[in-house]
């Protein structure tokens, strides 16, 4: 088990190195740099001043020199400072990861509750109009782009005159305000997860319903609701974990757009602005952070198989 | 459809012109004089739609930085504000310099610094007295490698004969020096900021009306009243009136509108169009509808390296194709026709009638004739690089595209982000380029950046000795009326001989404020110079 | 999810009859039938946009600014007087075009790479898998956003950006399928008699993988449409003046609460397109693999 986790981590680390090289090289091919942006509104800028500023940031060095310098520092745990703001990149990323992860986790939780509830209900009501209705709703929910859902939420809120309080607060500094800020974007994000989960849960439970031991139990007079919840959910557990793993990546993509729409100072907004201002160090770190989150989530998913299912645990070790 | 507007819309056209002329006065629609006495205390919240990347005024020209620094810092000279001063009009107001003298030859400036000023009580400066050494240290650092470097181009030496005097000598006459010292980036910092005493990226120590108590990027910049601020109102009240100010960095327009409607923002700063304004107005009782002309304008650069654009007649034809007044009304809901010098500089841009005659009178017939004369009777196709300054700006580009199509010119829009666009401009790597000009505060800035060889906005490589001579001459004319005449002459010359870039439109700038806010005057320069005199109802 | 939908391996059959069989299956399946109807409506709307739309999507009717839906302008007009209905039709066309190109590109390149990787195995497989893993580590929208921002906004660049974001999944699934197919007797037999690898892949692998690829493709189609909209919304997608559903939404955000039709109609078109493709994917899965019902 432990060696498996370790191997995954090492592999993930190698992948991150490759990602960072690709990002480092390709992003520098984009025209313009941070200096021209910093001085963009000055009327009285001279070419010498531009050159002077570039030299200060080390942007005049050959790209290989820049990369070795950067990579060396990163390996020593130093992500450098933002070219744009001169703040430590580590702090910027740290501050941005919190809202993003909170959004994703709250969305997953909402999706989990909604999805399991509707999946179980759907299975229990199999063949009734209620089942059909739930299936139609989940099919629709899968098709609605998060982008549009977010905008519709805003339109709806504007129509009823509700105002999301500002400015953004972290959960620790002001939980009441924070939850009001997070709940709408999280719901908009969660519907896709909920829909996928609902379908999966329904089919997993129906599959169990056909199993021999279920028939036997029913014959013994155990109520079918109890049966479904007991065995059906247990049967659904592994696919649900797999699904949550894959959906997490999807969700992380969604946060980029949702953060933009709901003005949440998360990783997506940070990356978007860093790209716009050619803030190389922040772009590199932000992409790596996305990679790191994905790797950790995948690892957790793999490990949780082991916890849930002893057979997997044996196979892995 | 374009024709439709011309044919059926003569009356509309007149109305538009009248509207544009009114707006171009650029006077804030001041609320009726309030008899009430200002009340100290309270708090206002302003939105600035960008974070401050850091607080080092020497590092960037970012408005997010300088508009925040304005609350905590002072310059030697400030922009005056008031009911009778236009948004884009520079009237020098003593700030850290209490008075100044200019020598007969115009080459020596002597500034007498205000006495008894102390720095904010923030470590390591901790409330010590402000002296000429601080001014010297700041200006020297700026001249060495600050973004302000160019503003000192005419300055020869800066010395401090005593603790409260600064003497500047110039290499050549430069009538805009006072305004350069009042430039929005020219904050005075304590000498410790340059000797390693503290990190000016993170710590803000000024002499200004408020102290930054807390800055959370993406969340809020929170200010509290500086009890030792030197400012006094006309009636002798200690300034500032407000105990607290919050600046919120809300980037998303809808979030901003929502926040304003919900009363979470008191003073609006940043883009907003008239349609949105009407909706806000309906929802917010007693809203103050303050309007000015933006100090940024759209400009179309036509690269002479692309053959058709080398011909003046083609550039003139394109100028005649664009229906700017209708465009400004429809897309921006108001504003003013652009000029070689932007219309926000009300005293320096050409008079409205003349600008409208030059740039605001479309004539597709004449345009087609000019094209035919230049040998492009069948029109031509060019790549129209458009910098992404947001939705309205893109709409303008689409509008221009349709107007050009009407005279047979096909503009193929190529969107780029602003950084890439400026890089392409500098390399001369474009055919036609549409961008938003920097917020200049002086005609001289427009001239030197656009029309001098090596100028940072001289994307079309203009190098005209006659024009260069005119620009340098203007810098030495002390008499305001004579200088204004020269500045106009230069603009007429450029319109007649170069017609490049084509000025387009300066949008109306809306500065709505909640009813509870009093004494608010938006100003072209960054840093909210009227804020110390703002007060609020309970 | 898709990986669970493995169709049973079948020996190669004549293609036309199979296509017909699939179509027949789709029509008989209630979900498939609904999906086909919706999809044909969307397709007709997009393909025949020039004949259906009464207005040029680019024509600015400068005195009809922000008009609500009416008999002349069914979906209202935008802020420079363009007809939203016409723009939504043309926007759907752009969406479908981008989606189709992405699917074709991912299916051909991703599918081929996946098949080769699964068939050959060994170090080539390892290298390909590591490369895919690199792309897979970063969320697909982030990859696409990064690439689109780098290349600059154009339809072609959007297609490239979305393709690169989508194809790792394709490679992974197709490879897994290929490994299973490789185990079958008739392929082993073909190998024994010395048939060249490429021919085995094309004649035996391809037909067997087609069902999976079809399901995967129709789902990827929907995802591609959504990502195109997201990129355009962020300003790095389909450039103006061409209407794209994403840019239309971005345009509408400035008028939320003032002109909701700018948000509602393009979004509806977007959702309907995605819905139709998702349903087709579902139905295909049912038809091709009856066990999953």
Offer a few descriptive terms:
heterotrimer; A: about 325 residues; mainly alpha; MetI-like fold; 2 domains; 13 helices; elongated; B: about 550 residues; alpha+beta; five-stranded mixed sheet; four-stranded mixed sheet; 20 strands; about 30% helix; about 20% strand; globular; disordered N terminus
Task: Give your account of this protein's structure.
The complex is a heterotrimer of chains A (317), B (538) and C (293). With 317 residues, chain A is mainly alpha-helical. In chain A, 79% of the residues lie in helices and 0% in strands. Chain A has two domains: 34-78, no CATH class; 89-316, MetI-like (MetI-like fold). In chain A, helix 5 (89-124) packs antiparallel against helix 10, helix 7 crosses helix 10 (224-262) and helix 10 runs antiparallel to helix 12. The radius of gyration of chain A is 24 Å and the shape is elongated. In chain A, 43% of the residues are buried. The relative contact order of chain B is 0.16. Chain B is 31% helix and 18% strand. Residues 1-34 of chain B have low confidence and may be disordered. Chain B is α+β, with helices and mostly antiparallel strands. Chain B has helices spanning 2-8, 10-24, 63-69, 132-145, 177-181, 253-261, 274-283, 312-321, 324-332, 352-359, 364-373, 391-406, 418-427, 443-451, 465-474, 480-497, and strands spanning 43-47, 77-79, 92-94, 97-102, 108-113, 155-162, 165-170, 210-216, 220-225, 244-248, 291-293, 298-302, 335-337, 380-387, 409-416, 432-436, 502-503, 505-510, 517-518, 535-536. Chain C has helices at 15-28, 30-47, 49-52, 84-120, 122-137, 140-151, 155-182, 185-192, 197-233, 245-253, 261-288. Chains in contact: A-B, A-C, B-C.
Describe the secondary structure blueprint for this structure.
The complex is a heterotrimer of chains A (317), B (538) and C (293).
Chain A: H1 2-27, H2 34-38, H3 47-57, H4 63-75, H5 89-124, H6 129-143, H7 146-160, H8 175-209, H9 212-219, H10 224-262, H11 267-276, H12 280-308, H13 310-316
Chain B: H1 2-8, H2 10-24, E1 43-47, H3 63-69, E2 77-79, E3 92-94, E4 97-102, E5 108-113, H4 132-145, E6 155-162, E7 165-170, H5 177-181, E8 210-216, E9 220-225, E10 244-248, H6 253-261, H7 274-283, E11 291-293, E12 298-302, H8 312-321, H9 324-332, E13 335-337, H10 352-359, H11 364-373, E14 380-387, H12 391-406, E15 409-416, H13 418-427, E16 432-436, H14 443-451, H15 465-474, H16 480-497, E17 502-503, E18 505-510, E19 517-518, E20 535-536
Parallel strand pairs in B: 1-10, 14-15, 14-16
Antiparallel strand pairs in B: 2-3, 4-5, 5-7, 6-7, 8-9, 9-10, 11-18, 12-16, 12-17, 13-18, 19-20
Helix pairs in contact in B: 1-2, 8-11, 9-12, 14-15, 15-16
Chain C: H1 15-28, H2 30-47, H3 49-52, H4 84-120, H5 122-137, H6 140-151, H7 155-182, H8 185-192, H9 197-233, H10 245-253, H11 261-288
Helix pairs in contact in C: 1-2, 2-4, 2-11, 4-5, 4-7, 4-9, 4-11, 5-7, 6-7, 7-9, 9-10, 9-11, 10-11
């Amino acid at each position: 088990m432990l060696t498996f986790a370790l191997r995954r981590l090492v592999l993930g680390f190698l992948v991150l190195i490759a990602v960072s090289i690709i990002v480092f090289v390709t992003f520098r091919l984009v025209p313009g740099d941070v200096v021209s942006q910093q001085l963009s509104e000055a009327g009285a800028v001279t070419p010498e001043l531009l050159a002077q500023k570039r030299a200060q940031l080390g942007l005049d060095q050959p790209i290989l020199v820049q990369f070795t310098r950067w990579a060396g520092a990163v390996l020593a745990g130093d992500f450098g400072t933002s070219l744009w703001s001169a703040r430590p990149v580590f702090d910027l990323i740290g501050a941005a990861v919190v809202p993003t992860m909170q959004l994703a986790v709250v969305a997953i939780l909402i999706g989990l509750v909604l999805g399991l509830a509707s999946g179980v209900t759907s299975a229990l009501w199999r063949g009734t109009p209620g089942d059909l209705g739930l299936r139609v709703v989940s099919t629709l929910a899968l098709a609605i782009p998060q982008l549009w859902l977010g905008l519709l939420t805003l339109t709806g809120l504007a129509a009823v005159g509700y105002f999301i309080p500002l400015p953004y607060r972290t959960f620790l500094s002001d939980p009441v305000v924070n939850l009001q800020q997070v709940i709408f974007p999280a719901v908009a994000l969660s519907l896709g997860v909920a829909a996928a989960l609902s379908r999966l849960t329904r089919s997993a439970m129906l599959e169990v319903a056909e199993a021999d031991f279920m028939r036997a139990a029913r014959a013994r007079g155990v109520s079918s609701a109890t049966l479904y919840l007991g065995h059906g959910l247990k049967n659904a557990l592994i696919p649900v974990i797999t699904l949550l793993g894959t959906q997490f990546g999807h969700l992380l993509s969604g946060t980029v757009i949702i953060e933009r729409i709901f003005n949440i100072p998360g990783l997506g907004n940070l990356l978007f602005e860093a790209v716009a201002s050619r803030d190389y160090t922040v772009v590199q770190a932000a992409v790596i952070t996305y990679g790191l989150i994905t790797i950790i989530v995948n690892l957790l998913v793999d490990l949780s198989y082991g916890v849930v299912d002893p057979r997997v645990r044996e196979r892995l070790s | 459809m374009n024709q439709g507007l011309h044919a059926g819309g003569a009356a509309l056209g007149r109305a538009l012109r009248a509207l544009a002329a009114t707006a171009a006065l650029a006077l804030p629609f001041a609320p009726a004089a309030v008899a009430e006495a200002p009340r100290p205390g309270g708090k206002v919240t302003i939105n600035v739609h960008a974070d401050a990347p850091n607080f080092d005024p020497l590092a960037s020209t970012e408005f997010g930085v300088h508009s925040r620094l304005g609350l905590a810092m002072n310059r030697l000279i400030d922009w005056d504000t008031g009911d009778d001063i236009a948004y884009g009009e520079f009237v020098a107001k003593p700030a850290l310099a209490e008075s100044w003298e200019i020598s007969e030859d115009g080459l020596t400036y002597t500034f007498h610094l205000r006495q008894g000023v102390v720095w904010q009580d923030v470590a390591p400066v901790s409330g010590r007295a402000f002296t000429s050494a601080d001014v010297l240290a700041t200006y020297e650092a700026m001249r060495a490698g600050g973004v302000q470097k160019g503003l000192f181009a005419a300055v020869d030496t800066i010395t401090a004969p005593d603790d409260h005097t600064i003497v500047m000598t110039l290499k050549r006459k430069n009538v805009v020096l006072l305004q350069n010292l009042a430039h929005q980036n020219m904050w005075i910092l304590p000498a410790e900021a340059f000797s390693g005493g503290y990190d000016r990226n993170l710590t803000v120590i000024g002499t200004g009306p408020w102290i930054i108590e807390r800055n959370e990027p993406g969340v809020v910049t929170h200010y509290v009243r500086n009890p030792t601020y030197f400012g006094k109102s006309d009636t002798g009240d200690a300034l500032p009136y407000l105990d607290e100010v919050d600046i919120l960095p809300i980037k998303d327009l809808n979030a901003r509108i929502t926040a304003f409607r919900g009363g979470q923002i008191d003073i609006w700063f940043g883009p907003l169009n008239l349609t949105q304004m009407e909706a806000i107005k309906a929802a917010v009782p007693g809203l103050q509808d303050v309007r000015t002309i933006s100090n940024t304008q759209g400009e179309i650069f036509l690269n002479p390296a692309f053959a058709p654009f080398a011909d003046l007649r083609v550039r003139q034809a394109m100028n005649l194709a664009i229906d700017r007044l209708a465009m400004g009304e429809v897309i921006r809901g108001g504003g003013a026709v652009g000029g070689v010098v932007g219309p926000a500089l009300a005293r320096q841009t050409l008079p409205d009638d003349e600008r409208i005659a030059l740039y605001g009178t479309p004539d597709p017939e004449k345009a087609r004739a000019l094209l035919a004369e230049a040998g492009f009777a069948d029109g031509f196709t060019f790549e129209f690089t458009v910098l992404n300054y947001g939705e309205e700006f893109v709409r303008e580009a689409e509008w221009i595209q349709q107007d050009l199509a009407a005279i047979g010119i096909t503009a193929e829009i190529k969107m780029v982000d602003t950084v890439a666009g400026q890089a392409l401009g500098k390399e001369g790597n474009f055919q036609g380029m549409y961008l938003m000009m920097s917020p200049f505060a002086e005609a001289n800035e427009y001239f030197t950046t656009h029309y001098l060889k090596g100028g940072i906005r001289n994307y079309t490589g203009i190098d005209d000795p006659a024009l260069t001579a005119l620009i340098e001459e203007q810098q030495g004319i002390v008499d305001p009326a004579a200088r204004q005449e020269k500045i106009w002459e230069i603009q007429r010359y450029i319109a007649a001989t170069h017609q490049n870039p084509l000025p387009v439109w300066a949008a109306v700038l809306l500065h709505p404020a909640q009813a509870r806010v009093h004494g608010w005057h938006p100003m072209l320069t960054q840093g909210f110079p009227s804020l110390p005199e703002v007060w609020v109802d309970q | 999810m898709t990986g669970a939908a493995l169709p049973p391996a079948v020996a190669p059959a004549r293609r036309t009859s199979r296509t017909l069989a699939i179509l027949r299956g789709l029509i008989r399946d209630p979900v498939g039938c609904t999906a086909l109807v919706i999809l044909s409506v969307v397709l007709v709307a997009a393909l025949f946009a020039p004949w259906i739309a009464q207005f040029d999507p680019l024509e600015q009717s400068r005195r009809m600014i922000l008009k609500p839906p009416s008999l002349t302008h069914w979906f209202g007009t935008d802020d420079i007087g363009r007809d939203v209905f016409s723009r939504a039709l043309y926007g759907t066309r752009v969406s479908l075009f981008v989606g189709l190109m992405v699917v074709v590109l991912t299916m051909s390149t991703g599918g081929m790479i996946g098949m080769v990787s699964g068939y050959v195995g060994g170090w080539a497989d390892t290298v390909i898998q590591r490369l895919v893993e690199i792309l897979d580590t970063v969320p697909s929208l982030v990859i696409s956003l990064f690439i689109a921002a780098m290349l600059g906004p154009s339809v072609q660049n959007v297609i490239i950006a979305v393709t690169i974001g989508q194809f790792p999944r394709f490679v992974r699934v197709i490879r897994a399928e290929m490994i299973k197919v490789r185990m079958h007797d008739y392929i082993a037999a073909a190998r024994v008699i010395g048939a060249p690898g490429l021919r085995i892949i094309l004649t035996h692998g391809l037909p067997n993988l087609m069902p999976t690829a079809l399901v995967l493709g129709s789902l990827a189609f929907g995802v591609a449409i959504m990502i195109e909209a997201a990129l355009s919304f962020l300003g790095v997608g389909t450039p103006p003046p061409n209407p794209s559903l994403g840019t239309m939404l971005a345009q509408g955000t400035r008028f939320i609460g003032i002109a909701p039709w700018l948000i509602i109609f393009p979004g509806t078109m977007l959702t309907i397109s995605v819905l139709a493709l998702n349903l087709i994917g579902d139905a295909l899965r049912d038809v091709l693999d009856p066990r999953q019902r």
